[in-house]
């Protein structure tokens, strides 16, 4: 919300931010949320992690995937297997009955999700 109000901070005239600005902020924050979801997701099984990445980040490429793996703190030896799998799966994202069964494994339970959020909050508090 602060980012959306940024254009009018310090202004005596209270007005809504331009639609183009709002669209850019929402798009950027949505992408940031998707990146956080991928980074916080468990990286095993590898296929599920790669499929989750492809599903959540639509403009995915090898360079971005490498950055995500770096953010997760994975060793280069672990990353090489994942990169190879990513390159195999990128041209043909999962679809049909096989893909839907693996995609159903992507959704964490509410307990897992809240646990991950708590861990992230603790990490942020430690850094502040």
From TrEMBL:
Gene3D superfamilies: Vacuolar protein sorting-associated protein 53, C-terminus. Residues 97-108 have a biased composition (Low complexity). Residues 2-74 form the Vps53 C-terminal domain. InterPro entries: Vps53, Vps53_C, Vps53_C_sf. GO terms for biological process: retrograde transport, endosome to Golgi. One of its GO terms (cellular component) is GARP complex. Residues 88-116 are annotated as: Disordered. PANTHER family: VACUOLAR PROTEIN SORTING-ASSOCIATED PROTEIN 53 HOMOLOG, VACUOLAR SORTING PROTEIN 53. This is Vps53 C-terminal domain-containing protein. It comes from Diceros bicornis minor (South-central black rhinoceros).
């Amino acid at each position: 919300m602060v980012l959306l109000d940024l254009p009018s901070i310090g202004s005596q005239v209270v007005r809504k931010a331009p639609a183009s600005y709002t669209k850019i902020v929402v798009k950027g924050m949505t992408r940031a949320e998707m990146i956080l979801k991928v980074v916080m997701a468990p990286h095993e099984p590898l296929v599920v992690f790669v499929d989750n990445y492809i599903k959540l980040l639509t403009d995915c490429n090898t360079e971005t995937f490498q950055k995500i793996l770096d953010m997760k703190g994975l060793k280069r030896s672990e990353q090489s297997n994942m990169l190879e799998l990513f390159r195999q799966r990128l041209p043909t994202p999962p679809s049909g009955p096989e893909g839907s069964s693996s995609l159903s494994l992507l959704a964490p339970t509410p307990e897992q999700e809240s646990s991950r959020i708590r861990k992230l909050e603790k990490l942020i508090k430690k850094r502040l």
